[in-house]
Description:
The complex is a heterodimer of chains A (about 300) and B (about 375). Chain A is mainly α. Helices cover about 70% and strands about 0% of the residues of chain A. In chain A, strands 1-2 form a two-stranded antiparallel sheet. In chain A, α1 (about 10-40) packs parallel to α6. The radius of gyration of chain A is 19 Å and the shape is globular. Chain B is built from 14 helices and no strands. Chain B has helices at about 10-50, 55-65, 70-95, 100-120, 125-155, 155-175, 210-230, 230-240, 240-245, 250-280, 290-300, 305-330, 335-350, 360-370. In chain B, α3 crosses α12 and α4 (about 100-120) packs across α10 (about 250-280).
Amino acid sequence: MSDLTTLGAWGVPLAVLGGALRVSAPFLFVSLGECLTEKSGRVNLGLEGTLVLGAMGGYGVSYLTGSAWLGVAAAGALGALFGALHGFLCGRPRVNDIAVGIALMLLGIGLSFFLGKPLIQPTAPRLPAFSLGFWSDVPQVQSNLQVNVLLVIGVLLAPLLRYGLKNTRWGLIVRTVGESAEAARAMGYDVNRVRLLATVAGGVLAGIGGSFLSLFYPGSWNEGLSSGQGLMAVALVIFARWDPMRCLYASLLFGGASALGPALQSVGVTSGYYLFNAAPYALTLVIMVLSSSATKQSADLPMELTVAR
Amino acid sequence: MSEPAGGEPAERRAARAASWLGTFLDGLVVPGSALLVSALLFGLFVALAGQSPLDVYEQMYRGAFGTWFSLQNSLQRAAPLMLTGLCTALPARLGLVVIGGEGALYVGGVAAAAVASSLTGASPYAVLSAMALSSMLLGALWVGAAGALRAKRGVNETISSLLLSYIGIAICNHLIEGPLRDPQSLNKPSTLHIGDANMLGSLPGLDVHYGLLYGVIACLLAWLLMDHSVFGFAARIVGGNPRAARLSGLSVPKLLISVCALAGAAAGLAGMLEVAAVHGKANASLVAGYGYTGILVAFLARHSPLAMMPVALLLGGISASGGLLQRSFGLPDATVSVLQGILFVVILASESYRGKVTVFSRLLSSKGAAS
């Protein structure tokens, strides 16, 4: 983490902005994936496991093949696999999708730690980045305003997903399945198939989001890589009321909140380190409380969802 | 032969007993098959990792139940698992999925250690009672908060309990490194040691601490409460059909909050046991995954407090054998997590088959009908 003391008081907001640009990518991808899955009426809490698995897989493939982008592709493929497992299990009768999500979270994390043991030491090729701070001579500004290509892809994906859900036939099918399974069945759509595909797509995005963690920032594989980011992204989707653009804004907000702890630490505020690192969780909890109501349901809620009922 | 005047005829009694036995055995088929399938899948996984599944299983058995030493190790690990399992199983009866046991355990443990270090000079009984009460209170507060948020604001309890768990762990870490820190604990920040006199002793004749008894009693009490009391009946109605519960006049919010509070108290007590019987002080090693394994214990036991006791022993055995696996085969400790994950997934998948198995019922009833 670059030394921000030379910038004085400007160091902290700059670091927070840098954090928003850096750390928000995993939140963004996972929340977009979860948004799609939840629009189809299913909750995938296993995205935390998918995220970690994607991080490990992406790092491993990048190390073995020497190409970071192949690592990203591998991470997406692993995410698709786990998403397919989730979709398949939840399609069976009497299976609770929240429990399956927790189970896959634990399985994904266990598998990643097991397979990733040999990957902790070696360094793998990372993803390229460019800096939005090219106008400044100050190295801190340049390094803090670094933006990764994946983030750009994610930022473009959000409006694309929103357009897709609102204006295309596929989006309509997904939304119908999420609002009323009976109506979808009456129209001849295979509800389980649509949800399976939506979950697989969500898994792909979550895997890619995980690869960002290991291939860009923090840029290495270790067992403390993710700390609940997948789950926070699920909460984020509820906060964003299932709109991909709001997912984008919320992800930036969360990225900034996650960067608050390290930012304050680098200007010398060392007490309360754990409390500042807990800021994103507290923020998530607060917005969940504010955006939920015991009696009213959000108008944007897909009616088939179990998590917000 | 039979006494129709006062009691049931003997044939009908026998038929009822046979039908009960049939249903019980049928109920074991699906989870039993799930265990077998998990064992097969894990064996496949181990084989792909380059080791012989049979060797691994043999070592796991040795490390879990093979010797007297390993059996006691498993029993010792089962104690907190019974309690953290209750943390998920009790709210599950109400239809809630609560996964904040890890944080509640840590919060309870830190509370117990803090209380103990402020009660210098008191008798061990007083100290231990204070530790137990404070840990249960704090734990109840933590998970009860998730229940309250669900009751009052409709916030999903799975996400809120996990978030509260993370927040609780952060607060505890902060307190352990700050106000509650033992100045002599330089390498690993911990609270002050509670004093050897206050440590929870071992059960007579065993090398297992009294926590096992706490766990067993807690499970028995939970079973009595949930299955044989009016409160438990009301709770199960809420789990089955919240609207019907409300229409019957049951106070759903009160039930949600109180059951979550009890669940949190159980997890907090587990934390106190770890402090009082194992470590003697509270530090980051309390966060050892007991909370997450407890979730699996609850789901494996299908949220039944009685079944949780053997299941906790099974999972305690699995985690006890982890060290032996590492030494004998060089398999990383994550191997145990993989097995637990496989178990969890297969058990959930097997839910689809629940109730569809009637082999033993038909077998026993046909026998009964023939006689």
